[in-house]
Write a structure and sequence with these properties.
Number of strands: 2
Largest sheet: 2 strands, antiparallel
Distance between the termini: 32 Å
Strand order of the largest sheet: 1-2
């Protein structure tokens, strides 16, 4: 099983990006709905969609976007998001953190 960093939330670093890591169904991530939202046991670092407390959007904002990504950000409350969404660190995040 994969090891993840502790949960991360720093709106000052992530908000300006617009959620590029939420475009998970295309390159470079190439995730699948099953891995991200039907992972009952967290084997792939995802979550189980029935635990999110919200229904997916009826239309995705982009073909590669997660179905929970709205124009104003993720609609899943932070505490209910899949672990991979709270633990992931993109290259931009790492660059900003280690340049400080």
């Amino acid at each position: 099983m994969a090891t993840f960093w502790e949960e991360h939330r720093d709106d000052s670093l992530c908000a300006d990006c617009g959620g590029k890591c939420c475009y998970v169904y295309g390159p470079p991530y190439n995730m699948t709905r099953e891995r991200l939202h039907e992972d009952k046991h967290g084997v792939h670092g995802g979550g189980y969609y029935k635990n999110y407390g919200v229904e997916p959007l009826s239309q995705k904002i982009h073909p590669h976007a997660c179905e929970y990504l709205s124009p104003s950000g993720c609609i899943i409350p932070w505490e209910k998001r899949p672990p991979i969404c709270k633990n992931y660190r993109c290259g931009l995040w790492r660059d900003l953190v280690f340049r400080r």
